[in-house]
């Protein structure tokens, strides 16, 4: 778990700086996919899924 959280933090920082500098290419796509893969294996996956479901459920009421 500690290794996964470290990878999520590192990949998240790399992705943040790539998006901020607008350097989007195959490398950024790989970083984004790896970030999502490792984020899904952390404890943050369940709250993110619940938040996404809540937002999707609220859209028709707008």
Shape, per Cα inertia axes: globular
Radius of gyration: 14 Å
In sequence order, what are the helices and strands, one letter per element? HHH
- In the predicted model, the low-confidence regions spanning at least 5 consecutive residues are none
* Count of DSSP strands: 0
Task: Report the major sheet.
Answer: none
Count of alpha/pi helices: 3
Descriptive overview:
This protein has helices at 2-20, 26-40, 45-58. With 62 residues, it is an all-alpha fold. Helix 1 (2-20) packs antiparallel against helix 2 (26-40). The mean pLDDT is 79.
Describe what is shown at a glance.
By secondary structure, the protein is mainly α. It contains 3 helices and no strands.
Present the secondary structure layout.
Blueprint: H1 2-20, H2 26-40, H3 45-58
Helix pairs in contact: 1-2
Task: List its salient traits.
62 residues; mainly alpha; 77% helix
């Amino acid at each position: 778990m500690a290794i996964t959280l470290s990878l999520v933090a590192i990949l998240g920082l790399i992705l943040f700086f790539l998006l901020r500098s607008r350097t989007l290419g195959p490398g950024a796509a790989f970083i984004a996919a790896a970030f999502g893969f490792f984020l899904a294996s952390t404890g943050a996956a369940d709250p993110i899924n619940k938040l996404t479901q809540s937002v999707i459920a609220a859209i028709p009421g707008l």
